[in-house]
Design a protein that fits this description.
The structure is a single chain. The protein is mainly alpha-helical and 508 residues long. The protein has a domain at 296-501. Helix content is 75%, strand content 3%. It is built from 20 helices and two strands. Strands 1-2 form a two-stranded antiparallel sheet. A hairpin with a 4-residue loop joins strand 1 and strand 2. The chain is globular.
Length: 508
């Protein structure tokens, strides 16, 4: 397999597979499910080739593939990966087959269209993480809205239309501002570079030299688009609706990958393209992140619905990631990157586990349960490990990310105050409160609801096959995080070097 075209093969696999599925007959859902699953496995295998061929000792983008696309605009199909984008691509290709397998029984209507949408969505997500041309990035960013809109709108809950339209409008609004900023930056670059270009590597050379007043407008246009996707408080209101109404597979992909596109965008574009503005506004954005951490946790505490509780926990956990990015120290940014992966695994697993009992009882109400440890002990053990990883228990993945973010924030010369760390650390305590309280009410005590005796059965072999790989990585990252931290170290250092001189000038 040619290494310089490896990313193109990875991108083509799910989209070609999704088109192939359209030619199958709806009357054969088993074949459609198997084909969709095998195509997603093929994409995961190709991503492993990229992983094992990646040189962690080089900071540059690797596996670059470039073809001139629109000559008059100097727009190219240009892809490549560094340590940060590679980890997120691996997360995408790892979770997609697991979500398809998890929906084997849950999705019974329009199986062909569902499988097509999931593979189409995977293509968009992979494309976002590997694009090195801003125009190409924007196309993938917008393209993945379409399948997610239909996944929520067709296979979601009772208020699915409201949730899908709200998700679409919020994200589309931010995206249009980003498009304006991309055009503005590309036109500005035509002066120093001699021609209009959307090549990200060329724009990296021009962005920092944009005058502060103009740079601030560009920075906020990009930031707003990414902040809606994260989502940063107070732009988070679409998230609980989308999560609760989405089918389990949609919730896993939404929490596991789509939210990371916002934090990835901040890291890939806002910091290196507009370093002056990023440094100047870092304390303000970090304050919003901390409000999100505390607000998300407090609202999660009072949720009667398990899925909504996990949805609000995402607002809190992604607040940690944003704080880590804008602390702009090596520890904090590396912690933010690993926390993106941790959140994808832990919260994705929590959504899968809520889906497991919802399929049996058709209820997500915490009050409906109680004493289920006696009925489904394996499920309760898995739920405990996953909840503890989300809380940040030492020895599991969540602890590594949160510890590095808090350490880096404490040392940050940009934030220049230990109060940021103190308030953020309170979020760890709140997380323990809402998750352990939920676990206690659902799992322990006596079986209050006699219906559960008949409805609840322990996890099947298929459900264990879905959840065990995630548990392996939850423990792996918790015990030996260097496997993943070493991959991203040079990439994060390179981003921090781009803002380094502006950080020093601010401190002086």
């Amino acid at each position: 397999m040619e290494q310089n075209h490896l990313l193109t093969y990875l991108l083509l696999t799910p989209i070609a597979g999704s088109l192939l599925i359209l030619f199958l007959k709806e009357e054969n859902p088993k074949l459609i499910r198997w084909l969709g699953f095998l195509i997603s496995i093929a994409a995961f295998i190709i991503s492993l080739f990229v992983y094992f061929g990646f040189d962690a000792s080089a900071a540059d983008f690797q596996f670059q593939d470039k073809i001139l696309w629109i000559k008059s605009l100097n727009v190219s199909y240009f892809v490549g990966v560094d340590g940060i984008s590679l980890l997120l691509i691996l997360l995408t290709t790892f979770l997609t087959p697991l979500t398809l397998l998890s929906s084997w029984k849950a999705i019974e209507k329009k199986v062909k269209m569902f499988t097509f949408m999931m593979l189409f969505l995977e293509t968009g997500m992979i494309g976002v993480f590997m694009s090195l041309d801003m125009f190409l990035f924007y196309i993938f960013w917008e393209a993945m809205l379409i399948p997610m809109y239909f996944i929520i709108g067709i296979w979601g809950g009772e208020q699915r239309i409201y949730a899908s339209v709200k998700f679409f409008i919020y994200t589309m609004f931010g995206s249009l501002l980003m498009l304006v900023a991309i055009i503005w930056l590309a036109v500005y670059a035509s002066g120093p570079l001699g021609s209009f270009t959307t090549n990200l590597l060329d724009l990296y050379k021009v962005g920092p030299s944009v005058p502060r007043e103009i740079q601030s407008w560009m920075f906020f246009a990009f930031l707003l688009s990414f902040a809606i996707k994260v989502p940063i408080f107070p732009l988070h209101t679409w998230l609980p609706d989308a999560h609760v109404q989405a089918p389990t597979a949609g919730s896993v992909i939404l929490a596991g990958v789509l939210l990371k596109m916002g934090t990835y965008g901040i890291l890939r574009f806002c910091l290196p393209l507009f370093p002056q503005s990023a440094v100047y506004y870092a304390p303000f954005i970090s304050m919003l992140a901390i409000v999100g951490i505390i607000y998300g946790a407090l609202v999660a505490m009072v949720q009667p619905d398990m899925k909504k509780l996990v949805a609000y926990s995402s607002v809190a956990h992604l607040g940690f990631v944003v704080l880590g990015i804008f602390a702009m120290t090596e520890e904090a940014v590396q912690g933010a990157v690993i926390q993106m992966i941790n959140h994808g695994l832990s919260t994705g697993a929590l959504f899968l586990l809520v889906g497991v009992i919802y399929e049996r009882t058709h209820s997500r109400e915490i009050a409906y349960y109680g004493g289920i440890a006696k009925l489904i002990p394996v499920y309760c053990a898995v739920l405990m490990i996953t909840s503890l990883s989300s809380i940040g228990l030492p020895g599991l993945n969540g602890f590594i990310g949160e510890f590095l973010i808090l350490l880096g924030s404490f040392k940050s010369s940009v934030l220049n105050s230990w109060w940021f760390t103190v308030f953020a650390a309170s979020g760890v305590i709140f997380a323990a409160v809402y998750l352990l309280w939920m676990y206690q009410r659902v799992v322990f005590g006596t079986v209050k609801n006699p219906e559960l005796q008949n409805k609840l059965t322990d996890m099947t072999a298929r459900e264990l096959i879905v959840i065990v790989p995630i548990l392996i990585f939850i423990v792996w990252i918790g015990i030996y995080p260097s496997t993943f931290l070493d991959m991203t170290r040079l990439s994060t250092e390179k981003i921090l070097r781009s803002v380094g001189s502006f950080t020093l000038s601010l401190v002086k």
